[in-house]
Design goal:
homodimer, seven-stranded parallel sheet, five-stranded parallel sheet, 12 strands, about 20% strand
């Protein structure tokens, strides 16, 4: 019974160490040095190796090393393989930090001040209270809930939207498709945090932008494929959107000659909002392995029909 | 009995409105249209009018419209005039927002990413956990305490220093001059929030920088006069400091040809971290007037011998 990890050298080193410390009884191996393929029951990876069904015939559990599983072509996986998203506090903390930074940078005009610094202009902008600012989080899963809760602690007028109703203290929670337009009308800053599925692909488009208050700012920390870039550019040119902070793009890495890099209304970071932290990730994987062995429900188990 | 406010037109308009709503019984006037000078018992201002002792012979209370009173030459004030700092939630909230933004921008490499965006380079930097980062707040008055408490909520290893011992949950509080070197050694990012007095003038100097961990970042949100700019430049050139985020400078406004504007290791904002919010400021002033009338202690009363 072997657990295989497929990742880069630095992360491989750290996972190995944490596995050796916390679960020395598990045969832990690094891709591609997997030993007897028939023994491999567990695989943790970001990208699927080719021909998984034939290479690893006895695979039971596929762990994503990231928060999403949209990078997996689930149709290529045998039906009996269970897929598990990474649910670990490091991912949540990173996302909360990044989005808080982005929302505060928007709220406190940081990018305008950086531009003024380049022209050596000392030009204060009147501070608005957080209570007078409307911020919305689209997607209230594990990450969205944590983000909304943290932002509420700064006193913003917080709104959240999810398919099924949530209750989050300090956040006005909207639910279901019919409530989406009302939610969007309440987002001077929109934090986008839905999983990438067939339903959400291209969802950040002209018709969604048109429902935001004029001059809104978009913060996309989900997937680049959610966003139609031509629609973004038109909304920026038109003034419907004042700016965008994008941690994800399509493709990644973003090519050097892409217009997003040089548009002064856009901030691009290279998909770093949230990264799995090896120590807490290994703890999470080991807890799920124990739950699996006892026949209990694993945390982050993916509904393969729903896609997340 | 007249209350006089000396400020700019926009703020004057807002204070007038809030005074009229909340305390119509008070004769509220705007400088320089003060009516009978002998009637003026209360003055709220950022800068002292000339010859205050003779112009306003019956002045009892001088309210600063900002968090500090270092801009007042207290030696010019008759001894019986009581001086009151502005203590109101708007100032605290603004400072907490700004410092949180600055610390997260440091922690999450925002300025490095903005530089990489200018060269179109997609180059992720490994995310460190907040728990692995040491942040210190020098000065644990009303603002410093609020800042330290908020940052502790992100999981940073938080340190604080004050002259007299404080207790703040989640913050290792150091107290007194002897504890200062140990505190400074624990500050990968140093948030400076002491009042400006004869004792703290020029305190951000080479010998203080030398006690920080190598490569530390300075966040000055107190006063420009705290910081010796030649020492800052030397510490940046030497690598002892990696960067500085300065909301205050000396002088203000910073002249267009000043080196701080164009140094890529420095972020300058035009003294906007925290601004008095008229609505809550008026509420705070009115509460103090009531306390004063009842012979109770006012919130923010300055110890004129101590200077803050």
């Amino acid at each position: 019974m072997t657990f295989v990890l497929k990742t880069d050298a630095q992360r491989a080193f750290e996972w190995s160490r944490h596995f050796a410390e916390s679960a020395p009884e598990i045969a832990f191996r690094l891709w591609p040095d997997i030993g007897d393929p028939a023994q491999v029951r567990f695989l943790a990876t970001w990208s699927l190796p080719p021909d998984l069904a034939t290479t690893l015939p006895n695979l039971e559990l596929l762990f994503s090393t990231g928060a999403g599983v949209d990078q997996f072509d689930l149709s290529r996986l045998p039906g009996h393989v269970q897929v598990v998203r990474m649910v670990e506090p490091g991912i949540v903390d990173g996302m909360v930090e990044y989005v808080t930074m982005a929302v505060l940078a928007w709220h406190r005009d940081l990018f305008a001040y950086l531009a003024r610094q380049r022209t050596a202009s000392w030009e204060p902008i009147r501070v608005q209270t957080a209570a007078s600012r409307k911020v919305g989080v689209l997607g209230l899963g594990m990450l969205g809930q944590a983000v909304a809760r943290k932002l509420a602690g700064f006193g913003f007028e917080m709104h959240g939207w999810s398919r099924n109703r949530r209750e989050i203290p300090g956040v006005r929670c909207h639910a279901g498709a019919a409530a989406l337009p009302g939610f969007l009308a309440s987002c001077q800053a929109l934090v986008f945090l839905l999983p990438l599925t067939e339903q959400t692909l291209g969802m950040l488009n002209a018709s969604l932008f048109a429902r935001l208050p004029r001059g809104a700012t978009l913060i996309n920390v989900a997937r680049g494929q959610h966003l139609l870039l031509d629609d973004l550019r038109a909304a920026l040119n038109d003034g419907q959107l004042a700016g965008a902070i994008l941690d994800v793009t399509d493709p990644e890495p973003l090519p050097p000659d892409h217009w997003l890099w040089s548009d002064r209304r856009v901030v691009v970071t290279p998909h770093i909002a949230s990264m799995t932290q090896p120590e807490t990730a290994v703890r999470s994987v080991l807890q799920n392995l124990r739950r699996h062995a006892r026949g209990e429900a694993m945390v982050g188990l993916v509904d393969r029909t729903r896609g997340y």
